[in-house]
Design brief:
The chain is an alpha+beta fold. It has two helices and three strands. It has a three-stranded antiparallel beta sheet with strand order 2-1-3, with helices on both faces.
Length: about 80
């Protein structure tokens, strides 16, 4: 699974990141390494591409509570008529 190691690193270090005052910041993680923290997603993403190129890395906002997003599909899907 893509970014499995990075997600595991984030979960394992979450309480430490929060206690160090990084709540709300964006963390750049590559493998099992927490690289740095940024005030915006864009800044973290740019730094990740600059340092790692196309090697997988993860940018995630440090949050106590993960937001849940719901998506639904249309009840009556539009169908093409031939």
């Amino acid at each position: 699974m893509a970014l499995e190691k990075e997600l595991e690193t984030y979960k394992n270090k979450l309480s430490e990141l929060r206690s160090q005052g990084h709540e709300g910041k964006f963390v750049l993680i590559q493998g099992d390494r927490v690289v740095d923290f940024f005030s915006s997603y864009d800044d973290a993403l740019k730094a990740g591409y600059k340092e790692f190129g196309l090697t997988p890395f993860m940018v995630k906002q440090v949050a106590s509570v993960e937001p849940v997003f719901y998506a639904s599909r249309p009840i009556n899907p539009v169908r093409k008529v031939s």
